UniProtKB/TrEMBL annotation, chains A, B:
SMART domains according to UniProt: Transket_pyr
Subunit structure: Homodimer.
Listed SUPFAM superfamilies: Thiamin diphosphate-binding fold (THDP-binding), TK C-terminal domain-like
PANTHER family: FI06132P-RELATED, TRANSKETOLASE
Species whose genome carries this gene: Drosophila kikkawai
Signal peptide range: none
Transketolase-like pyrimidine-binding domain segment(s): 316-480
Cofactor dependence: Mg(2+); Mn(2+); Co(2+); thiamine diphosphate
EC number: 2.2.1.1
Name of protein: transketolase
Molecular function, one GO term: thiamine pyrophosphate binding
Keyword entries, A-Z: Calcium, Magnesium, Metal-binding, Thiamine pyrophosphate, Transferase
Pfam families registered for this protein in UniProt: Transket_pyr, Transketolase_C, Transketolase_N
Length: 623, 623
């Protein structure tokens, strides 16, 4: 489809709107006494063209699954994004003056507290992954016409996550994705990063790359038209812009980054008003077409298509049970998807790939993009995503997971290869801080299933639980201890061994639960009976069951985990008991960087074996 | 300097050594019953040429500051690295059979438990940053002739961290750095990643890019010669290789990734022996030259050149005191360096840049590379590095920091903008999990200075403390409460308010310490006297002081922090009291994702203000 230039009147109207957006960016940050108006100014024409010539929106339902998406990766330009929605008619422009106030959702950086925001941004370099996730779903699952736009700053293009995502987008031919680089050249990063360098890099990463004057309405409009008509390649629009553009006495002034204009505001606004030819200009966004809409989907009540099917005493790794359960819930619901970062053979996500290859997304060895794509793929309730890799490699994407919580994401994570029990591969491969990481995520649920039956139920529960879920799976095989019909629930622990005479409560999960059981056997030989508790979820923890049984066991608790001391199961138990007097807790954990060796030897060497539990219990019995 | 081809005899010897390295890779992984021999095989000629034609080494002191460096970013190829050092004569080749055994330091992935390893690798995509840090120091600080080599796998080149580091290396013209890509094309990543794509990408990222047959000794040797003679640009050697090269019946066989050859080992070894023309071949690495050596440096006993200079009651942000102290210790020792990721104006690292620009490294908005460069810069005790950015953005580099602990790094981190107290910028910018992150690092020290005096001393102590140090600094100004001559030590808390009648111990740090003091005032009006404790270091925590004073306060403790519940100061206190009966702890923390607003309003809204502390104390008084 060939491009037709805008007629002069329309062109002038869009220009006028751009200047109005500039004025709003000044006035809102003036009212807030903080913010980044000059970072907004460089985007004014880009926003005006996107909102009033390009994107197809539904103002009645801004998160309509069929409408186009926009992710503002450079989240500090929030004021102009808010201004664009206000000018489009979503809410009164007067509200823009509430920017950054505690009783307004127009926060300093965008969050989905606003009904027109899909994801929180503000930690730089994360927007493209999210947009790529949306685009992937649009192209391959929804098979719909909506397009995804993402605006990236030049400073943030130093983030490696950006290049992970560009690589991903090109590999999967996401031609429904358009990445706009706002190159206002103010960062410390500008030495060699001239336009030509960007162009070479984007070309080399497989993009349809267009260089435009980011303040020229017609060039921008043509660029978006070109992008929409380019097949099999995502488009990068490299927009050459000026920071503080058209702000009188401010344009191009680096020192004013991240500050309202203060005393210069009034003159700048007057100048902008002078540039506007029709102060009453009013444009509307395009509407969505009738065709190519996203299908209606239902992602509730997801179940294992068949229940767990093991025999008590079977030896099965929980990571294997994870893969099995994943394929089972995917059979139950066509919107369950799985993503992995070149570890599918060891996380057992390959069971999903084998069963439903079209719903498995290989994200290569790039964990930040992996997580971002999943967050994007779940937006607007399009999918239920399960992301797997080795537990410790989620540390690579901690920032993305943290931002996921701000985005109210429901992504589920599964981390295999936890703790010393992986053995010979050594410390770089051992997840020893993963519980700490996922516990720190607001609203998260942390599953730590001990056997295959509970692991399958963890997957099923995670699929239906809001917020970030994490399932910690174990490398070696462990004994099945629950019946196939055992009922599990979030926040409900299990007592797996007890006698009325119990004098100590042992708490373990995964490999350490078996160590607890073995320690209990040995203790009984010495006439000490121990109760054993399997928490199932570390967060929320079953506080009342722990308090009740801890009291029955004379306030003596031994908690043991294949994890570092900080932030894991042990500190979760201590938090649960914080406001209880008369408890004494002995916490066994991996105290230092482990090493390569056989799993059983390491568990003992680092003090979390049955022998260590036995000793700790003997010691605590005196208290 | 023009290149002269190797003479035939030398060429054959290097070839023979390469095959010997292959044999060792098979036999050691056979003995271990695990490992990645085929990933070693693709590297055999590269290793042979590096060790026996290119690198200048000191076998008596493998970490000689003047010798060349090699970082094996693809750490799973450890067996062939170990084999090369053994063949070079560092230790008997028989020891290679102890690979992965618990009593051997020849671990599954390299760690600096071995005297010839600088840093732990095995989490992919991290090696180039470390090598770039070494090269930066070599070129700009040591001004020495040593060169730095780093071997990267093709799979790991999907990691964004790789591209952050390539950008950095080119920006700083690190012509003493040579990055070798072992392109054995076995990952899921190989679709479009043909050699030409690599070449275009590396060219676009500013490298001197050479494509070679990675199994051709002469081409490799010529490549390294070219690299050594290229000025102002780092070199990338793109080596086209084959996985399992010259392993009979195994070469190019993807299924065998990460497995020993098993039954195929014997035939493969026989075939390799057949390929070796002189089984007794023995080569030695090049020695270091007499010129261009690295200077001797002393990085001990670093002190503030002048003591803190504040008045009690002054209002000074601890982040500002951080910058001041940094410049002061840099004045005391010429090996103190600072690194920042485009946040120097707000972390106040710019004070260092202004005073000693040649020791300030701007790392752009790329936190993974930031941390990796610092780890590399501190290797072989060349520098004392301070890395700063906003506290929450260290989540971006959690994996690098985690690996830093495995590398025994002494890098110091300073995170500004912690907690809700940053106010209007909103949750994406608030560090609310940074204490959890840094506490989880084995051997770490976590400073949380409350005022400017203690902040300056934290910087001084960190400079002299082994292991990872983290200094959490605060955005708003806080009141100076310590005299300039107050003595601080790691693990020593301060009682800042006490009376004999105290019935509750309040623990806070940073902004919450002031809230505790204010709450204590209000409580006293209600005839309840409270003791207030400032921990100074959250890790190690002053357990004995807390236990002693907690007991004196009837076992009642209120701990309050501008951080999420998990893994922070509160859980540290709970861990400290775990084995004490008769304590009751009320923990106040930020319970959910905060929002934009004035700092004081947010502290109250999220339950960590003096009002909340007052209420919590009234409640705990009943227990």
């Amino acid at each position: 489809m060939s491009y037709q230039m805008l007629d002069k009147k329309v062109l002038q109207s869009v220009k006028d709107v751009a200047h109005k957006l500039r004025i709003h960016s000044i006035t809102s940050t003036q009212a807030a006494k903080s913010g980044h108006p000059t970072s907004c100014a460089s985007l004014a024409e880009i926003m005006a063209v996107l909102f009033f010539q390009t994107m197809r929106l539904n103002l009645k339902h801004p998160r309509d699954p069929s409408s186009d998406r926009l992710v503002l990766s450079k989240g500090h330009a929030a004021p102009i994004l808010y201004a664009a929605w206000a000018e489009a008619g979503l809410f009164p422009v007067e509200e823009l003056r509430n920017l950054r106030k505690v009783d307004s959702d127009l926060e300093g950086h965008p969050t989905p507290r606003l009904n027109f925001i899909d994801v929180g941004t503000g930690s730089l370099g994360q927007g493209i992954a999210i947009a790529a996730g949306m685009a992937y779903v649009g192209k391959y699952l929804d098979k719909a016409e909506y397009r995804t736009y993402v605006i990236v700053g030049d400073g943030e293009s130093a983030e490696g996550a950006v290049w992970e995502s560009l690589h991903f987008a090109a590999q999967y031919s996401l031609d429904n994705l358009c990445v706009i680089f706002d190159i206002n050249k103010m960062g410390p990063n500008d030495m060699a990063m001239e336009m030509e360098v960007y162009r070479e890099r984007l070309d080399a990463f497989g993009f349809n790359t267009l260089t435009v004057d980011g303040h020229d309405i017609d060039e921008l409009n043509k660029g978006f038209h070109n992008a929409a008509n380019c097949k099999d390649k995502p488009t990068a629009i490299l927009a050459r812009t000026t920071k503080g553009k058209d702000f009188l006495a401010v344009e191009g002034c680096e020192e004013l980054h991240g500050q309202p204009l203060g005393k210069k505001a009034e003159a700048a606004i007057q100048h902008l008003q002078f540039l506007i030819s029709n102060p009453n200009v009013r444009l509307s966004p395009k509407k969505m077409g009738k065709c190519g809409r996203a299908p209606e989907v239902n992602i509730t009540n997801i179940m294992l298509c068949v229940p767990p099917n093991y025999r008590l005493g079977d030896s099965v790794a929980t990571r294997l049970a994870y893969g099995t359960a994943l394929a089972k819930i995917a059979a139950d619901n066509p919107r369950v998807i799985a993503l992995d970062a070149d570890t599918k053979n060891s996380t057992y996500a390959d069971k999903m790939r084998n069963a439903f290859p079209e719903r498995f997304i290989e994200c290569f060895i790039a964990q930040q993009n992996l997580v971002g794509v999943a967050v994007g793929a779940t937006c607007r309730r399009r999918t239920v995503a399960f992301v797997s890799t080795h537990a410790t490699f989620f540390t690579r994407a901690y920032d993305q997971i943290r931002m996921g919580a701000i985005s109210n994401t429901n992504v589920n994570f599964a981390g295999s290869h936890c703790g010393c029990s992986i053995g010979e591969d050594g410390p770089s491969q051992m997840g020893l801080e993963d519980i700490a990481l996922f516990r720190s995520i607001p609203g998260s649920t942390v599953f730590y299933p001990t056997d295959a039956v509970s692991a399958e139920r963890a997957v099923e529960l995670a699929a239906n639980t809001k917020g970030v879920c994490f399932i910690r799976t174990t490398y070696p095989s462990t004994r099945v201890i629950y019946n196939n019909d055992e009922v599990f629930a979030v926040g409900r622990a299990k007592i797996v061994r007890q006698k009325p005479s119990d004098e100590v409560l042992l708490i373990g999960a995964g490999v350490t639960l078996y160590e607890c059981l073995e320690a209990a056997e040995r203790l009984e030989e010495d006439c000490i009976t121990a109760r054993v508790l399997d928490p199932f979820t570390v967060k929320p923890l079953d506080v009342s069951l722990i308090v009740t049984h801890g009291r029955l066991c004379k306030g003596r608790v031994v908690v043991v985990e294949d994890h570092y001391q900080q932030g894991g199961l042990g500190e979760a138990v201590l938090s649960a008991l914080a406001d209880q007097r008369n408890f004494v807790v002995k916490h066994l954990y991996v105290p230092t960087v482990p090493r390569s060796g056989p799993a059983a030897v390491l568990l003992d060497m680092f003090g979390i074996s049955s022998r260590s539990i036995y000793k700790a219990t003997m010691c605590i019995m005196k208290k």
